Amino acid sequence: MSSKKKLSQYVDELCKLIKMKKFGKVQLPYFGLDKPFTKGYSLLQFIETSSITGHFSEYWRKSYINIFSCQKYDHKLAEKFTKEFFKAESIKSTFLTR
Length: 98
What we know:
By secondary structure, the chain is of the alpha+beta class. Helix content is 26%, strand content 27%. The chain starts with a helix and ends in a 13-residue tail after the last helix.
């Protein structure tokens, strides 16, 4: 969650796993430095069918990830992969069909 290289690896592997075609390079700015509870990496990966976004809070040790796509994908597989990749003790997810 605090390694730019690992976050880039995460989105690469996730896109392959759920069969999303990346559009351009992942953006991973580190910002929010004014307050310890807002600083961390944010992730933006455009995909051909929309985007994958995330914010990673080192202070709270939490990750907030959104996969937004017009293309169907296995959200349970994405959830399982994410939990395992970040070695999360717990995960809360919501899946919305649009």
